[in-house]
Write a structure and sequence with these properties.
By secondary structure, the chain is α+β, with helices and mostly antiparallel strands. It folds into two domains: 257 residues, no CATH class; 73 residues, no CATH class. The protein contains four helices and 20 strands. The strands form six sheets. Strands 7-6-10-11-13-12 form a six-stranded mixed sheet, with no helix packed on it. The protein starts with a helix and ends in a 6-residue tail after the last strand. The structure holds zinc ion (ZN) (2 copies). One zinc ion binds next to strand 13. One zinc ion binds next to loops.
Length: 348
């Protein structure tokens, strides 16, 4: 087992009162002999995640990059949202079992035909471990793969100042250019050039860059999936754009069936989906081990949702004690409630 990879995860599990032994035991049947190590991910991938070791770890074998992530940025969240679905960001605890992790192809394969992204799950994973969804909310009927302004969460006030929010699984994710991630990179490197750096990987394995090229040049001639190959050694890659749809609505690479993001907490919702409501989220303090509090005003009245990790009788579940103060109509809870959800997104 690779030491570099294990340390942050062990630290986190210890912080939330879960022993690694327990985590491993729970998932023991899935453990297979593996040759994956962090070193096999290569210098570029390791450099991309090195500022986010509190939230993300990577390992690679000859075929895959395995990503273990809390799916929570070590950053501001939720502030500024005016159209709120009453969900909150809960950290997603992954064990260090490869089968429960994100699987991104190490060698992306370009396809002349494109595949639409679905709008109901991640299209890419950012270097801080936060998933990226496309700019269209899922419709009532399920998948939605084409951009529609009426279903763009940025235009409907549903995104925070970082272009993220929490989905129906209390899963935090981005829907547009991750400005706060870029800011974090600039701060960490003390260089504005960091905004040009690799920001994540599409689920087809191709890299995702920001609003400029890696060398700082302006981005030109993007294809319909917001990608291109400049023949400069980087190969085919995608970009974010400031104009809609902000991120790829389609893949130009082969998306392996194996990396369907079933390990997203959206598949393991612990609270009922909240009703949409017009609020202003005014503040959020987040703590992995202590109490997190999201504050808002609704109809001129201040309210809040607080939650604190709690012990779980079921080793497969993660629990929080929730406290709701002045919840708006459609709130997923009220008063003081214990809420638990499956530790990994599968089988819920
Ligand atoms: Zn969303
Ligand atoms: Zn480019």
């Amino acid at each position: 087992m690779n030491r570099k990879f294990v340390v942050p995860l062990v630290t986190f599990l210890a912080l939330v009162g879960i022993s690694l032994a327990a985590a491993l035991q729970t998932n023991a049947p899935a453990v297979a002999a593996t040759t994956a190590t962090a070193a096999k991910c290569g210098a570029v991938r390791l450099a991309a995640v090195k500022y986010f070791t509190k939230t993300v770890s990577i390992m690679c074998d000859s075929k895959w990059m395995y990503v273990s992530s809390l799916e929570i940025p070590n950053d501001e969240m939720m502030v500024g949202i005016t159209g709120w679905n009453q969900q909150v960001p809960l950290p997603f605890v992954m064990s260090d079992v490869l089968s429960t992790m994100w699987k991104i192809p190490l060698k992306a394969v370009y396809s002349k035909t494109t595949t639409a992204t679905t709008g109901v799950g991640a299209t890419a994973l950012m270097v801080n471990g936060v998933p990226l969804f496309n700019a269209t909310k899922p419709s009532k009927d399920g998948n939605q793969s084409s951009y529609q302004a009426s279903a763009d969460p940025l235009l409907t006030g549903e995104l925070d100042r970082c272009d993220g929010h929490s989905g129906r699984g209390d899963d935090y994710h981005y829907h547009a250019y991750p400005a706060c991630l870029v800011k974090a990179l600039v701060t960490a490197t003390k260089s504005s050039k960091a905004k040009n750096s690799l920001l994540g990987w599409s689920l087809d394995g191709f890299p995702v860059y920001g609003l400029s090229e890696a060398n700082g040049a302006a981005v030109t001639k993007l294809d319909a999936c917001l990608g291109h190959d400049l023949k400069n050694g980087i190969g085919y890659h995608y970009h974010f754009t400031t104009a809609a749809p902000y991120s790829p609505m389609c893949y130009h690479g082969v998306v392996p069936i194996e990396n369907n993001p079933e390990h997203q907490p959206a598949a393991a919702a612990g609270r009922p989906a909240g009703g949409p409501t017009k609020v202003l989220i005014t503040g959020m303090t987040f703590s992995l081990t202590g109490t997190s509090t999201l504050k808002y005003t609704y109809n001129g009245v201040e309210g809040s949702v607080s939650y604190t990790p709690a012990a779980s009788a079921d080793p497969n579940k993660q629990c929080w004690q929730f406290e709701y103060l002045n919840p708006p109509p459609g709130s997923p809870g009220s008063g003081s409630q214990l809420t638990c959800r499956a530790k990994n997104g599968k089988g819920s």
